[in-house]
Amino acid sequence: MKFKITVLPGDGIGVEVTREAVVCLETIAKKFGHEFEFNEQLIGGVALDKTGVPLPDETLKACWVSDAVLLGAVGAPQYDNNPPKLKPETGLLGLRAELGVFANLRPAFLHEPLIDASPLKTEIVRGTDLLIVRELMGGAYFGQPREITEERGLNTMAYTAPEVERVARVAFEAARVRRKKLTSIDKANVLESSQLWRKVVTRVAADYPDVTLEHGYVDSCAMALVTRPTSYDVIVTENLFGDILSDEAAVLTGSLGMLPSASIGGKVGLYEPVHGSAPDIAGQGIANPLGAIASAAMLLRYSCKLEKEAKVLETTISKVLAAGYGTADLKSQPKQVSTTEMGDIVRRFVGES
After folding, report:
1. Do 258 and 247 share a structural domain?
2. Peptide bond before 145: cis, by omega within 30 degrees of 0?
3. Which of 76, 146, 213, 215 would bridge with 45, disulfide CB 3.0–4.6 Å?
4. Active-site residue 219, yes or no?
5. For the chain, how many structural domains are there in total?
6. 250 contact partners, CB below 8 Å, separation of at least 6
7. Domain around 215
8. Is 302 annotated as catalytic?
9. Total-model pTM
């Protein structure tokens, strides 16, 4: 099978980790008889430097005609004081909007070899395996009106029933193939948008009698993630809450560098590790590429419908960790390797599987 993939390395370590993910996809293609056509384009700070905008038209056009988009990371300190339209992150928000992706899937899985890297006690964190489904196109990040003056800042959090229903269905479907438990997180005790959220999710639940639904408040969930993370299977929540909770959940696993994400629901899926561009370590060859490689596995699963190939890549990551290999962020791993070396090891293990 042949697939077109637009590659957006972005800024900082995004360039380094994306390179390893791309070569791992090439290894998978060779092993299973597929063909990936890669088209590299600009986004974020590097796009600002070269074109004056964080999301060039050429990049958008390439993404629209692709089967999937693989992103590294965007952002750098030199752009922090730019106006909103000229910030690297605006390019990412714009890309999500243009692709129409409304469901962000962020798994948090703790590999046993990394259990000592988690900040939580072993008895609390062992067995953590959850998926956060974050609504990506609504809420305070996109609400209107919005404004800022010297004395006042305004953002509007709003949701419509169809927006809630479509992401809820993604979450229910995900729960169906996992442990059949869904927790919907809101703030319905004080927010009208959350009251609508809860009402719609409850209505959708009638179509999924095999999935157990429970509701919770975002503040309670934030506490539970660090006291009983294994009690969660799939969590679905709105944009702002999902942004915060998924970052919190990521810490449970020992390193942000381990975690992938998939943004789906539109014509073209977007896949990226959850970490940022980390300009403080860019160019040093110490960034962890496993989050980007795991994102490539999600690309195989959701956009290419290659479940077997996705599982091979994910299982390989587990085997590499079990063999003791780790980058600088995984200090508990005895065999410390560079970014490129880690990518090479993953590819060697894939070839031997």
Report:
1. no
2. yes
3. 76
4. yes
5. 2
6. 106, 108, 256, 259, 274
7. 119-252
8. no
9. 0.93
